[in-house]
Amino acid sequence: MPELPEVECVRRTLAPNLAGAHVISVALLRKDILIGAQTVVWGGSLEKQLLKSDKINALARHGKNLFFEGLSGRVLCVHLGMTGQLLLLRGPMKTPVDPHIHCVWQVDGPQGRFVLCFRDPRRFGGLRLLASREAMQERIDHCMGPDALTLDEDDLASSLKKTKRSIKATLLDQTVVAGIGNIYADEALFTARIHPSTPSCQLNSTRVRRLAESIRVTLQAALDSGGSTISDYRNPLNQSGQFQHHHQVYGRSGEPCERCARSLKKIIIAQRTTVFCSRCQRVPRARKTSISNNKPL
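^ that's the sequence the OP posted. Answer follows.
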């Protein structure tokens, strides 16, 4: 958390204010939020690499990653991790007093001047400095799977047939599909009527097609509702998402299934709590004798 819908909501909220904006100044308050900073050897000061005095040409997203593309060609990648936020503040141009704010940009944009803050209480997120758009694309191509919001069933099928891991574990792997976390993996698998323990390579073409569609539909529905606010997530205007009120399985262990009324169960898969309906999401026959590999709660 946040996952793809929340990150895309952040991008869409920021875009009218940041696209075409000039970065007046940058204040880096914690250097350890820079990801892989020790490998950054290309020219310019650290503030320049964080887009100081640059113009933001575009805001892009792939999976859970945001990319701020500067006119200089430099790119700033923002990963929100578990508790990261980008906050848009208007009013006096000064750094807010908050121990969890780690980087601050003062920006002159199409809708006036404002302060953009990167806040991350638990510091699982961070900023990655990239030398060019080509470096950004190379990182996407080599480190991330296809974006889940536009997932193609052929790409999904190609990845699934290569692994015996459970489908839940595979969906959480960002090199297979970029953007899905624990919330939307559970929700998409329920919609597709697939048991989360099913070995990925055992899904036939019909079920893969249904899963790809379920992923796209689930993520789009979450995006239309402003994402899910479970605890920390807020968009840059400090507004909560509403999709948590529409979760069919996530966080609902012990409650009745909305399809069949049977009590929802939870187990641990890939170290993550997994909620499912044992009637609507049948255990695959080949796995019935080994389902105990997943730890019940």
